[in-house]
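Data availability (excerpt). All sequences and predicted token strings are deposited with the supplementary files. A representative entry, GNAT family N-acetyltransferase, is shown inline so that the format can be inspected without opening the archive.
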Amino acid sequence: MSNENSKGKVGQITNVWVDENYRHLGIGRYMVEYLVENYQKDVGMICLNSSKEGINMYLHLGFKKKDNYLIYRNKL
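Structure token line:
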């Protein structure tokens, strides 16, 4: 455990991808919101990497840039 992660557990989201024909419909956002809302209580933070195209979505959802990845800290 650390000051950054008092629970000592880290969730990791990988490979969120939406077919080009279905992008900009909120599907990716819904998937990430679901994961954060349902699992943030179990971990101290959630980490992920993102393509350039996806970074703004994650920042809008509350993730913060740290080094070469994005992090969401448990707000509970």
